[in-house]
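re: that chain from earlier
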Amino acid sequence: MEQLSRSGLRFVLALILVFLVGDRHLEGQTAPRLREPDWSAVSGFELPPAHAARSVILVDVDSHTVLHAHNPDLVLPPASLTKVVAIDVALVAAERGEVSLETTFAPPEVSWAEHQPPGSSLMFLGPGQELSLDDLLTGLAVPSGNDAAVALAMVLDGSVPAFADRMNARMRELGLVDPYFVEPSGLSPQNSITARSYARFLLAHLERFPESTERYFGLQTYTYPQAHHQVSAAARMPITQANRNLLLWDFEGTDGLKTGYIGASGYHLAATAVRDGRRLLVVVLGIDADSHAVGGALRAAEAAALLEYGFRDFEIIRLGYPDPDPVRVYRGRDPRVVPDGPTEIVISVPAGQRERIVGFREQKDAVVAPVPEVAVGRVGVRIGTVELASHSLQLPAQEVGGFWRRVWDGFLLFVRGIADRIGGREEPKL
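^ sequence. v structure.
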């Protein structure tokens, strides 16, 4: 067996540390599940017009509700959307104490701009410079530097493949199966995502690092190298580059996230915006165009139209769930127990449909002790036949009661069984 490299060993030890110590901030974080109501079945509600992208998804961040989707499971190369994952894993590493965002270093020679493929987006790393990890993440987010992606991989894990392994481990940690990465810049067509899985990743990222929009993704421009980065005469002169996310200038409330393009994928944009306290997230993948100017404008226009649709045609409200009924616990220490259920729900609903919302409850009426903690039903809300959200009702573990309780309840179960058979009802599924 080949020996682990020093960087590989460091990564393995870091993973072991995570499993042993845990993440005290969001231990066991998994990407949120998406609610996906069938809006086409809501009478009187209009869906958005057709779009040019091969795959899109629009999500309300607070309620985790899909407001619109088109081919959300189509697998495509993410191009530079990959860099958001690279930034995310770097922030996780900093949070876990593996690195510090303030640590300064000279960019490794392999990451210098002159060594990147022709046509690369660049931060313009080079000799005579010194920068922090925080600077590097800004160079990934704003000018989308492929050189910055290589530097990040080298600084954290000593090689691009090892860093790609870290990215894939992060996806598995979040419970995401679809995303796969072979390198962090997005240049490779072997990287892959779907709009649905990428949206779930972004929800997890925004939940864990809400400051990343203001700190990185919402910046309109970035100048590098600045005076404090130039430590020798060999350093390049400063260059100011603009964020390619046109919505940062043109769509009210936009504060992120990232654009992407390679020939194999077409033009991508993942964007998020906030209005009146509501945050929406849109992922637009695979727009074809003959030029960067046209492709950049088309993806921005499509994302803006979907975001406008979400803000205009939906509202978010908070409701109370229906109260659960007590469950009869035969042979139990406590004969009637109220299962644990939610008290409040945040839902997205089509504008003007608030009065049509109704609650529902589906619940078993009895169990037989002893029984471990078990789901005995669910409560939720719907419009007509369209379910907007639901939550399981959990009955805590129930121990058996005393002798006379068991005898009496045994008799009651016998009588109940006879009555159910006479009445044609099924016995409760216990």
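The two ends are 52 Å apart (CA to CA).
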